[in-house]
Amino acid sequence: MAVLHCSGGSARFMETVSASTWYRQLGRRFRVLWPLKAVGTMGFLALFFWAYFAVLRHPLTEPMLMPLIGLDTLIPFSPSAYPFYVSLWVYVSLPPAFLGSWRSLWQFGAWIAALCLFCLIIFWLFPTTIPAADIDWSLYPDLAVIKGLDAGGNAFPSLHVASAVFAAYWLDRLLQQVGAPALLRWLSALQCLLILWSTVATRQHVVLDVLAGVLVGGVFAVVSYVRVRRAAGVEVL
Fold first, then answer.
1. Per the confidence metrics, is the pTM higher than 0.85?
2. Which domain holds residue 16?
């Protein structure tokens, strides 16, 4: 009871409780609307891929070839980047999986849908592609699958990068709210950076695509989060 009568002690007590229960908070959040989250995420990805490949195969004009810059030559091709490249689809699923209410879940879905639509419109109006790499893709079966499907189109801005940055921002805010250890937030940021690196290391994008993707994803992430906070009146996801 003495702790309750001392503001400093109370604050330290609350910090201790928060630090010891962050993983329980994530567990409770994960269970909220979990069937809707699972079905909704799969449905969203299915709809996105349908729209993405439709735009890729039917651009409005002839795709423009994206130029290389000096930084492109400093990032070598790396087959080991493939797992990080495909990990995006798990990474972008983490924020909605741990959102704790229908309101925040709906708002996250609406904003990431707006991000995807924005990029798809650019892809259709101003299609781009990347220079062909001097690589025998038959030596890398996993990467050959990606090249066969995507072929380096819909390049600028990189939607792969934009969605990773968007998810990273929301996930960081969420982890901060539940009092997760700083190490976990740094690991999330590192995973995002590895995804960004992988888009160039797999020769799916050039550096200019990545820089544009970071800008688009960052703008949508910050604006969406600020608007969600204003609508709710509190900083709760």
1. yes
2. 1-31
